[in-house]
Amino acid sequence: MKSRPRIGTVGELKFTVAQEHVIDFATGGMPAVLSTPRLVALVERCARESLYPFLNDHERTVGAEIEIRHLAPTPLGQPVTITTRVIGTETRTVDFQFEVRDAHEVIARGLHKRAVITVESFAKRVARKAA
C-alpha cells in the first residue's frame, strides 16, 4: 500500500433500486425489494472503491469477511446511499463499519473486512486451483 487509510476514511455509493437489484422470488403478491446478496455486493464495491487512492498499481482488495443486518425492505425505484467508514487497519487488512439508508430509514448496518493482495500472487494462487 502507498499508505494506510486513516481511521474515519469514508466511502459513499448512491444508486436507485432497479430490477437487477431485487429478489428473484417476487411472485404471488411478494413485492420486488432490494435483495440481500445484491446489497452485500454493493457494500463491498463501496468499500473497495474507497481504498483505491491508497493502493499501488499492482494491488487490489478482496472481501474477507462481512457481517450484515438487513433491517428493512426497499422497493424498486427508491434511492439508496451506502456509507462505509474505516474503523481499523492492520498490515494487509482494512476493517469497515457501514450503514445503508433509503429515502425513509436505515435499511442495513454491519462490519466488513477487506484484504490487500498483489495481483500477481493472487493470480498464481487461482491458477494453481484451476489446474
Detailed description of the structure:
With 131 residues, the chain is an alpha+beta fold. It is built from two helices and five strands. 21% of the residues lie in helices and 40% in strands. It has a five-stranded antiparallel β-sheet. Strand 3 and strand 4 form a beta hairpin. It is globular, with a radius of gyration of 17 Å. The protein has a single domain, classed as Thiol Ester Dehydrase, Chain A.
Helix content: 10-25%
Approximate strand percentage: 35-45%
Category from helices, strands and their pairing: alpha+beta
CATH homologous superfamily grouping: Hotdog Thioesterase
**How many strands?**
5
Structurally, the number of domains stands at: 1
Rg, nearest Å: 17 Å
The shape is globular
| Parts with pLDDT < 50 across at least 5 consecutive residues | none
CATH class, anyone?
Alpha Beta
H and E order: EHEEEEH
Main sheet specs? 5 strands, antiparallel
Strand order of the largest sheet: 1-3-4-5-2
At CATH level 2, the architecture is: Roll
Number of helices: 2
CATH fold label: Thiol Ester Dehydrase, Chain A
Instruction: Average the pLDDT over all residues and give the rounded result.
Output: 97
**C-alpha termini separation:** 30 Å
